[in-house]
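Onboarding guide, step 5: your first structure request.
Type a short instruction followed by the sequence, for example:

Predict the 3D structure of this protein.
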Amino acid sequence: MVGATSLFTTVEDLSLWAMNFENPVVGKDVIGKMNIKAILNKGDTIGYAMGQGSGVYKGLKFNAHDGADAGYRTSLFRFPDQKFSVNVLSNFASFNPSRMATSIVDIYLKNQEVTVAPKKESEKSAPTENSILKIDHDTLVSYCGKYELEPGNVAIVSLENEILYAESPGLPKTPMTPVTSTTFEVSAASAKATIIKDGSGKVRGMKVFMGGEEHIIMKLPDFDPANANLSEYAGDYYSPELSTTYTMVVESGKLIAKQFRTGDVRLKLVKPDQFSGDQWYFGTIEFLRDNNNSITGYKVSTGRVRNLKFDKKG
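The system replies with structure tokens like these:
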């Protein structure tokens, strides 16, 4: 274990740490700094402070941080105004501790009153006959497509039975509930997304509000992966840095990265020579070509690693 890991604790000790924020005994000099949000070079303030994230969940201000390494998954949520904290620890790699933590919050803080400023008349949604707003089919179709969260990290918006669904490497296929004709709630991610259009009405991207932060994600140009020749990506690829080999194979029309320890990683083509993986450690895969247009290798990037090089063998 390397880097920002190797902190071991228990549910009981983590609870003591949560209470320490209310009446600091340990780290009095740094507790205050941990509430100061970071400022980017361009002047924007992000939701991450010194060692904890800050945001709003169902109108309640919170501070939180997750942890993960090997098969361990953890989450600590604190609600300072309510003097309420939840910490969840798990030794099951596919477990989602944040979702469990917010489910517990929903139980214990469901009766908390949240003061919300009344909406301006211009912000109010038009009344509808049904509880779920109906949007024109062609409009919904125009919202579908791939949206780039960050270089190589793509979210997919699709339409099924007149319901929009969002899907990304960290989010399973999830329904998007319309609030207005251009704004949707994604309850599974505690997020809200607003469609951005240009002057001609063409969809250019989305403004996503999640975890107290606002992100602008742009829509990628239309691309039909069905026309791609997946077989040219097949072969063995070796990483000198990791001293390991992944084998790319095509099975049932899908490109799959195989490795005897980690198992199969299914890859989805998102744009020419670029794939997204269904495992966190294989987030984005960008294949590289030489001057003869032959594939020479690929680069893998995730939330913690960028451009890890694999060279094609043979």
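Each response can be followed by summary notes, for example: The chain is about 10% helix and 45% strand.
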